Each structure stands twice: as structure tokens, then as C-alpha cells.
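hey m, so remember when u said the C-alpha cells were messed up on ur end? i reran from scratch. heres the input so u can diff it against urs
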Amino acid sequence: MSWSKRQIITQALEEIGIASYTFDVEPDETQSALRRLDAMVAAWNAQGIQLGYPLVSDYMASDLDDATAFPDWAVESATLGLAVRLAPSYGKQVSPDTKFNYGAALRVMYMRTAKPTATMGWPHGLPAGAGHKMWRDYDNPFLTKNSPEIEESPGNQVRIE
């Protein structure tokens, strides 16, 4: 089961000390947090981090009770990232532990969503160099073989051919 946008926002507010049992969060504050969450995930999407979050083109179309479709390993980076973005608007300072944990969670997210870039072989006609054994390439002084192709298969599994 996926976390809802409301749950992510509640967790982020608790991280900065605005717990729902102590403070009453106004609906306009929740909507503002929702817009910031949408903007943060849209920025991640522009960086190539696609998590299945339902992006909207109109900020009024976003609903607090929509599922985020975040994988379990991305929830922490979303809540901590939102907490870091919301803290100044509440006059709060984020703890160093929160910043550190956000950086660690962001690195995990970058690693989990990394995709191989375009493959690059040797340019045609590249000289083999002094240490090259000519007998390996039939006395050709130039490199002709390309490096292995790296392809991404379904399910983000990297395959080398």
C-alpha cells in the first residue's frame, strides 16, 4: 500500500516539530505543503528521478488523499526533503540529523534510480598504442573492437552484452 500525500506532509511537519497533536495545522497550510511536495517531486522528475508520483499540470488538481506511488525506499527522502523545504516558512530550523538523514536518503534514491547513459565505443581509427600486441588484431595498428554494449532491460536491470 502506498503512502498518501497527506501522510507524507504529516510526517514532514512532525519532523520539524509541528505535530498534529500539539498544533492545529490549517487547511491552507496543508495546501501550501502539498504544492511544495508537488514542486519537489517535479524537480526530481526533471533530474530523471521518476518514482511514479502523479504529477499534475494545475496545482488545484492535486488532492491530499491521492496515493504517492512512492516505493518504500523513497518515502524517507520525500518526507525529509519536504521537512527541509517547509521549516523556514514555520520559523523553524532543521536539525543537523535531519539534514544528514535527508542527504543519505537522497543518495539512496539517486542510486536506486540511476540509469546507464548511452554506450560509447572506441572511435574508428584510434591508434592502438605502444603496449598493444599486434598479433591480437591481425597486425592492425588501430583499435577496431568496440566496448561491450550496456542496455537497460525491463525492471531497471542492467545487462551487458
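this time it looks ok to me. Residues 27-46 form the longest helix (20 residues). if urs says something different then somethings off w ur setup not the seq
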